[in-house]
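Researcher: Here's a chain I'd like modeled. Treat it as a single chain, no partners, no ligands.
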Amino acid sequence: MRTDYCGLIDTKYLNRTITLYGWVHRRRDHGGVIFVDLRDREGLVQVVCDPDNAEAFGIAEKIRNEFVLKVAGTVRHRPAGTVNPNLVSGEIEVLVQSIEILNTSLTPPFLMDDENLSESVRLEHRYLDLRRPQMQANLRLRYKVAMAIRVFLDQHGFLDVETPVLTKSTPEGARDYLVPSRVNVGHFFALPQSPQLFKQLLMVAGFDRYYQITKCFRDEDLRADRQPEFTQIDIETSFLNEAQIMALMEEMICGVFKSAMNIDLPNPFPRLPYAEAMSRYGSDKPDLRVPLVLTELTDVMREVDFKVFREAAQRPGGRVAALLLPGGGELSRKEIDDYGNFVAIYGAKGLAYIKVNALEKGVEGLQSPILKFLSESVVNIVLERTGAQNGDLIFFGADKAHVVNEALGALRAKAGHDRGLAEAGWKPLWVVDFPMFERDEEENRWKALHHPFTAPADGHEDLLENDPERALSKAYDMVLNGSEIGGGSVRIHRQEIQSKVFRALNIGADEADEKFGFLLEALQYGAPPHGGIAFGLDRVVAMMAGTESIRDVIAFPKTQRAQCLLTHAPSAVGEKQLRELHIKLRHM
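Model: Modeled as a single isolated chain. C-alpha cells:
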C-alpha cells in the first residue's frame, strides 16, 4: 500500500522505509548512479538507484519517461547543495530498495513540462496533457472552487436538486441541441441551455432554496470562453429581493476566492447602473482595472461641419463619444491604424483621433485630419470634457449608440491593457437596473434583454405596455475584471405581469401556451416571490487560474469547431440507428 503521494514526501519521513507509486517524469544517469523524478498528482520526489543494489539498478536502467513504477526505499537527506526549495520533497530523496515496472509507455508526443505545445496536439492526447503539472493544478483548483460553493450553499440551506437533461425546446437566445425521440416519432428533446424553467418550478413546489452544478448546452459559434457544453452554478431562492440575493451571492464569491486562493475581494462590491456603465465604459461588463472612461459629445456635435459626427449626433439613437488615452500621443500612425482595424470588428467605420502636442498653442498645438471640420469652440469643449493634457491622444466614435459603445468599450479595455494602464488585482462589481427590453431592428420588435421571466422594477409594471423602452428590470450581473461571471434576476411570479411581458414581446396567448404553458399554469398555484442567479464555473476557474481559455480548466473540452479531437466526436452513425429514429439524411 502506498505510504503517501510522491509530492508530499518530506522530512517527517526521514529514515523511514516507504512505498510510492507514480510515473517517471525524467530519468538521469550520473556516472553510475541513476536518478528518477517520480511524479503523481501531488508533485515530484527524487528517487536514487545505487549500483550496489544490482537488481533494482538493472531495472532502473530499463525505465523511460512515463513508465509506471512501484518504488520502495528509505528516505534520507539530499546531499548538501542539492536541495530544491521549490518542491515539498526538495530536502529529501528516496534510496531505492526495490523497483517494479507496473507498465511501460510509448515515447510520448511531448514532454510533460513542455509549455510550448499546440492546442490540437494537447487535445488529441488529452489524457497525457492532463498529466502536466499546470493542468493538474487547474483541475484541482476547479475542484476546490466547486467544493467551496457546495459547502457555502449547504450551510445556507440550499438543496442540490437535479433537473432533466432531456427537456423541451424553448427560445433562450441560442440554438438548442436537439435529440430525436425514437418512441415519439417526429418529436425531439432539447438539451437544456439552462435549468431556468425547472428551477422556477422548484420554487413553486416549495423547496425555497435550490442549487445545482450542472451541464448546460448551447449550439452557438464558439470562442475562447465558450463551449457547446459548459458548467453552470445554478441557484434559485424564494422570498428574497434582489438586494438580498446579491448580498448572499457576494458573500459566496468572496468566500470562494478566500478558500481556493486566499484572496480577499473588495467588500462590498460596487453597484453600477446599466445606463451609467454604457455611458462611461461602453460595456455592461466593464473592466474596472482600466481607469479610462468615455466622454459624451453628442450634444456638441449636432451642428459641426464634420458629416460623420453631425449625422451620428442628429440620428435618433446615435452617439458621439471620445476616449482619452493618456500618453497616447506617442503612438505611431501604424499603431493608430491597427486600433482602427480593431474597432472595425465591432462595426465602427473608422477611428478619428486628435493628438494633443501643445495645449498652450491652442488648435495649432493639435494634430488631426479632422480639425479643419471642427470649430475652435467645439475643440475646446472636447479638450475640457476629456481633460486632455500634452502628450495625450483622443479617439472618437460616431455611429448608432450600440456601435459606438461596443467599439469604444472594447478599445478602452484593449488600449488600457496595451499601454500598461490596467491596475493589478481583482475588481468585482454588480451591474444593475438593466432595461427590460432591447429593440430588434431586423424584426422591428422588442425582445427580452435577459429572458421573458425577469421581473420589472417596482413601479415599472405599466411601462411594459405603455413605454417598454423605459421599463427597467430586477436583473443583476456580477462582473469581474471585464467578464460577466454571473447573471440573474428576480422572476415574475404573478401571471398578470407575465402576460404583460408577453404582450410587449408580441408573444400571443397561443404561442406562450405552446412554449411555456407548464410554467404559466404553475404560476396560478400560489407561486412565491423568487429569484436567482447562475454563474459560469468554467469562466470563474479560468480567471482564477490565469488562463485565457476555459478549455484549460475543463478535463475534456471541445475545439472551436465543437469537436472532440480525442474521441473524434461528433461522428457519423450507422444507417440502422438512423432508421430507428426515422431520420433520412439529406446530402448537401
